[in-house]
Amino acid sequence: MSKELPNNQKQNEEVDLIVFFNLIGNAINKVLDFFKGILKTIFSSIIYALKTLFKSWKIVLGVLLIAAIVGYALEKSRPTIYTTEMLVEPYFNSKYQLVTNINYFNALISNNEKETLKDIFKVGDDVINEVKSFEIEPGPETENDKLLQYEEFISKLDSVRAQEYSYEEFLENRSVYAGKYFLIKANAYKSDIFKDLEGGILNSFTNDYTSKEMKRRDTLIEIQKQNLYDQLKQVDSLKQFYIDVVRSEADNKKQNVRLGEFSITSNESSKTREFDLLKEEQKIRNEIKKLEEEKIEQDVIFEVISSFQRVGNTSSSWLEKYSIIFPVLAFILLIIFFIAKKVIIFTLNYED
């Protein structure tokens, strides 16, 4: 009796496993049948549409030909657009004023404010009437430039937040103002007016804020340089004092003289102490040099890397290729029409 109970229990477990695997198999088959049904429906719809298209190939060919002719005619009737680009590097946060002014120029063009535009660009009607629009976008950047921006951004965060903020998240969330360079595009109906527009574009960098920022930077540099020159004088005085001490202690008696951070002992190596003073002097002079280089490198509000071309290039975009776009759209609409027709016929017959 005791042997039969384990055998029955084992048989029951085997039956349960078989039932369980059958349920899983049935569920998988139902899922596969569901997806097969969807694929079969899609395939059947495509075949029905193509079948109808092949039957009505004359109509399809005629519609595509008409669409191509209309698109080509529209392409030729549109005025030719010329474009050129200017690459700039703004300083002192003048990029904010630049982006604002580009949007302002486009608003004036949209509202046909020709007199205001003529005052801004200092040109006549013959130029303003040919201007279509302006665009601005971030300029070219290397991966190293992006990494440096990311490191600078991370350095401003606390340690916990810095670990959570990834490089990809930084690239995704940074604004149009984050870049170092900016690309300005001018679009016009005439190819040789772009040089006349340069002056107005370049004047759009300057405002009271950027001028104050530049003056503030120059003032801070002068203060820092003056402090460094004062330190340099102290080092020179210390060098002279050290020389006098060495001369007066020629008898090699042990005496210790302290002046600030420097300790001078008559029996120390004169070469070592002189080398320390020279290193300190060189360090101060290098800092002064860096400040002077910074002022020279950014002595203007902006820097023009490349200016507008004298003659613009013809603007070409696939969105303007109507002779191709119209036939493609017509073909898609025909497919939708034939599918809808089949569905309607099937529905009406089903009701009957």
H/E order of the elements? HHEHHHEHHHEHHEEHEEH
Assess the beta-strand content as a share of residues: 5-15%
Largest sheet: 5 strands, antiparallel
Number of DSSP helices? 12
How would you describe this structure to a colleague?
This protein is α+β, with helices and mostly antiparallel strands. It folds into 3 domains: 56-78 and 321-339; 79-211 and 302-320, no CATH class; 212-297. Helices cover 67% and strands 11% of the residues. The strands form 2 sheets. Strands 1, 2, 3, 6 and 7 form a 5-stranded antiparallel sheet that branches. α1 packs across α2 and α2 packs antiparallel against α12. It is flat. Keywords: Membrane, Transmembrane, Transmembrane helix.
Short description:
The chain is of the alpha+beta class.
Can you lay out the helices and strands and say which pair or pack?
Elements: H1 4-55, H2 57-77, E1 82-90, H3 94-110, H4 114-121, H5 125-128, E2 131-138, H6 143-155, H7 159-164, H8 167-173, E3 182-188, H9 194-203, H10 208-248, E4 256-259, E5 262-265, H11 270-297, E6 302-306, E7 313-314, H12 322-351
Antiparallel strand pairs: 1-3, 1-6, 1-7, 2-3, 4-5
Keywords: Membrane, Transmembrane, Transmembrane helix
Transmembrane segments: 56-74, 324-348
Any key phrases for this structure?
disordered N terminus, 352 residues, 11% strand, five-stranded antiparallel sheet, 3 domains, two-stranded antiparallel sheet, alpha+beta
